[in-house]
Design goal:
0% helix, 51% strand, 124 residues, single chain, globular, 11 strands, mainly beta
Amino acid sequence: EVQLQASGGGLVQIGGSLRLSCSVSGFNVRDWVIAWFRQAPGKEREGISYISWGESRYSESVKGRFNLSSDSARNEVYLQMNNLQPEDTAVYYCAADSARVYDDLLQEYEYDYWGQGTQVTVSS
């Protein structure tokens, strides 16, 4: 059974850092695409990053501040978030898919499996 569990959210001040973890079971992180999405209050869910066979990509909104990595031994994916700003406040979700043909890996419809969200709040 495929399961994903996101953790690591919390309250942080402007300019601070957090590291989110996505722990997975039922597959190995090196074999599937793993992505992070976020949803701010009143806004649509936004794809911000994905890692696929060791290669990572980022949305413009987080590029240069966020870094995605994976540990196949622990079967986890990590989202290191630096220089956090109030606009980064959202519920963050990890998602996964095994398909090998994609249109846009920052879109929700590409992913069949989702973890529960973890709240990130950036305050002044």
